[in-house]
Structures are given as C-alpha cells and as structure tokens.
Amino acid sequence: MNGTQWLVFILIIQVIHFLGTWKLYVKAGRKAWEAAIPVYNGVILMKIINRPWWWVLLLFIPIINLLMFPVVWVETIRSFGKNKIWDTWLAILTLGFYIYYINYIEDVTYIVDRSLKPRTGLGEWVSSIVFAIVAATFVHTYFIQPYVIPTPSLERTLRVGDFLFVSKFHYGARVPMTTLAAPMVHDTIPGLKKRSYLADVNPETHKDSWINKLQLPYLRLPGFQEVKKNDIVVFSLPSDTLYQFFKAEKAVKKPIDKKSNYVKRCVGTPGDSLAVIDGFVHINGEKFQLSDRAKVMYDYTIYSKKGVSSRYLAEVDAMDYTRKYLTDVLNPNQYEALSPYILGAYKNQSGTFEIITQEKGIPTEVIRQLRLALTEEKPLARIANMTDEMVSQLRSNPAIDSVIRTNEEKGVYSGAFPQKPNFYPWNVDNFGPIYLPERGATVKIDYKTIPLYKKIIRDYEYNDVKVDGNTVYINGEVADSYTFKQDYYWMMGDNRDHSEDSRTWGYVPANHIVGKPVFLWMSFDNFNDGIFNWRPRGERIFTTVGGSGEPVSYRWYFLAAVIGWFVFDFFRKRKKKKNT
C-alpha cells in the first residue's frame, strides 16, 4: 500500500469513527463536528475519556496501535457507564462497533469525573499487564531488541548462547511494515509454532491479496550512523521463504519485516567492488582489514606422523572436528543408549565397530554405564576449525608436524551466488569480483550479467524480468542498463567455512537492515544441549560488542549498582516510614 492508499484508508477510519461516536461527543459536552476532524478528534476523545493527549500518538504507531485501539474502545464505553464485563468483551470482539449501538440505541449519560482506578484486583492486574506490554513493545520495536545467537556463523567473535541487545536507533528504526501482527514476537508465536502475523503467504496470490495491501511502505526513522564495513549487523534474511526456520516446507512469500533475523559482519558497502581471494576478502583491489576484535575461523588440516590426538585439538579449543572410537562389541541396546552422542556407527571389514562423534565425544560416565571398551583412533591427518591464535598454539606443539588451511581452488564451483557455474564458477574461498550496487547507480546488463542483478531487480525492487536468448526484458521492454533504487550490502560470517552468508544468497538490501548489536548481557556454554547443561561464560557477561581491544566485562559494576540501589531504597523507605 502506497502513501496515497494509506491516506484514503485513514480517512475511511475517520469516517467510521465519526459515524459511531458523534452523539457521544455531544453527550460529553463537545460539538458533533469535533468527532470528524482527523487527529483533533483523537485529542478531544482523550479529554472525554480522561486520558493524556499523547495517547493519540500511540494510535498511529504500527503494532502499538493494535494494542491501544481495544483499550480506547473500552475506556470510551466506560466513560458512559458501561462497566460490566460483557460490555468490555462486546467492545473488543466487535472491533469497537459496539460503540455504534451505544451511540444510536442506548440512552447513556456521560460520567464527568469517572474514576480511572480499576474496581477489582483482577482489573488492576489486567491494566498493568496491558500497559507493560505496550511499553515493552514500543521499546522492542523502535529502540532495543533482545537477541540470542543460535548458530556459530560468527564464532568466536559472537558465540552460540550469547544474549545481545540490538540497537534499532543506531541505523534508525525500521517502522513495521506488517500492520496485523502479534506484539513482541517475530514470525512465529512461541509454543504454538504458528505465524504471528496476518499475511498472504502464497507467492502466486501475494500481489493481489487484500491482506498484503494493508502492508505499510518501507520507512526508516532517522539514525545517527550509517552501516559501515566491519559493523556486526542484524538483518532480515533476504532469501528466507520458510514458515519456520530449519524446517523444510513449501516456499512462502514473507513480508520483509517478518523474515528470519540473521547476524553477520558487513564486509562490503554500496559502491564497493568485492572479491574473495584464497579465503580473504578484498575491497576495491585491496585486502580487507578486519577489526581487531574479529576472531575469524577457517578449516585447517592438521598432520602428525604420530597421529593427531583429540587432546591436542581440545587443548586449543578447536571446533567442528570428528572423533572415531573403535570397539569389538556393540549390541543394539548400547547403540540406542549412545545415539544422543554419536553421528553414526558401522562395522568395518575387520569386524570392528567404528563409532563417529563430534568433538565433544562420548561422556565418560556413559561409557562406564554401558561397560564399553573403547579405543579412540588417532589419524595421521584431521580437519578442524580454528582461529589464528589456535593455529599458532597447535603449531608450537612438538607432536604436530604441520597445520595447513583448507582452500577451494579458483574456478571450482560449489554452489556460490549467483548459482550460474557456466558464467560464474565461484566458491566460498574464491569469489568475484562483484559490484555492490548503490542507490542511483546505473549498470549495464546483458544475458551474462543479469544473473548478478536479477534478484535485485525482480524481488527487491519489484520489476518483471525475463531473459529470451541473449535479450533481457524488464517490465516487457528490452533493457541494456538498470538504475538501482536502494543501497545493497555484503554480509559474511567470521566463521568463514561454516557460515551461510552473502556468498550463498547475495546482496542484503538496505530495507532489510534491522539493527546493530551493542551489548552482550549474558552468555552460556552448551546452549544447544538443554537448559540444565547451560554454563555461564563469566568473562563475556556485560561486555560491549563494538570497540577495539579485548572485551571488558562490566558485570561487577552492574552488581555493585544493583546492590547500591537496594541499599539506598531500603534506607529511603525506612526514613519515610520514620517520618510518617
């Protein structure tokens, strides 16, 4: 829905309001015409229901207004003596149209000095909950959003189990585009696993659906920063077409603000020429200098004539390596008991059972309970995921012969964007060069270059694109150039060989940017192993995300402030009680 359509929609709402309330305005001592003037009628209504004028502003804020409209309906009928529980439910369930009945049928009297205090304990509790939700939704939508890191794409810069506060105001809060949605949840209602918003998810009917015509146009409030290279950014995943993430289902057409949120590092900004050469990002022909807080990880092959022990890898805290255990006997009951800890088990040609696990291996107590006699294999070469610091530590181990970074050769295609191996045989280690479009820039397009920009032109800027032989058609006309309508960014994970990022699905449009992680308030090890296995990472609690140098924890300062507040509050109350 464009601006004109929204203006018409708002005017229709004003007409509905006038027709349903003008008599009530008169009974409250106001003029009938005051119910017809947009915005002004809201200010007058707040006076009638004895509420502050700024409530009117909340009625125009997307998502917040969904919570406020029922509150105003209920407050309106109560201002005319309709206080029974069934009156409240009728106002809510009829979407406010119960007020029409009161306006034209009921002979009600305006209560001038109506008490705003709830009449029952339950009413007070409900009132407190409603306004707590309104306040929390406002902060969550326009200022700060809590976020948890669920995947290791930024290990070890941000770790799985890190709880973050994401600032919406650094880049400017994106005003919600989906107008019919549950507050304080994203695309799925927790527990119910149902969509949290009302939208047509069928790609074939998406453009014609009346529901999607209620979508607001993209609007971002003013911020005080632009997205810069090296920023860690939360954004809506451009390629997300899933009802629920990590669950394979038929593709759906999701509104931009209801796509799954991803967090990556921005390595390319609009106007840049970007390439990945032997695993390293290059911008405009020069190697990209990462922040000193970035802990980039790559896969390495470790060699040793004496065998590479898992103990060596555990000592440097390496990741993503497998372990192989050997045993002569493994019965079905033992296999069943081991299943939560293993990737698989099979019997080799010599009759020995080989058990494969991830780096955590099999807990010692489980081995003892099952009375297994296991021997862990020490292969001559193993692959593990490590930072530069881990590699340096491992290379200093006299038992290790060499540590060599794995690398996909140039010209060997492995599913990289734009998924056109004939023209672009790219992979995650050797990619590009590729131009990152900026708003207002024009590029030449033909049948060879259109794969790079087709998704932008068709999906992000809403044009019809067809390629017939060597000819490109945009909106039915032959095209040899295109001018971009917005900026585009390139996002990559610091865990380079274990990150699905722009190298897979391409550019991130400016209207997909959500916010900037600024503060890490809690962190747990073993986050995906169940809540009873969580272990706090004390050194990461209450640390900043940005900045340079080693992160500093402010947890003791926070605890001191909390204790100080409780001490102050105790003596304040004690003094107040004494004076009373």
* Spatial extent as radius of gyration: 30 Å
Helix segment tally:
14
Categorize the overall geometry.
Answer: globular
Low-pLDDT ranges: none
Helix-strand makeup class? alpha+beta
Average of per-residue pLDDT values: 90
Please describe what this structure looks like:
The chain has 580 residues and is an alpha+beta fold. It contains 14 helices and 27 strands. Strands 1, 2, 5, 6, 23, 24, 25, 26 and 27 form a nine-stranded antiparallel sheet that branches. A four-stranded antiparallel sheet has the order 9-8-7-17, with no helix packed on it. Strands 12-13-11-14 form a four-stranded antiparallel sheet, with no helix packed on it. A hairpin with a 4-residue loop joins β3 and β4. α1 crosses α6 (98-104) and α4 packs across α5. It is globular. It starts with a helix and ends with a helix.
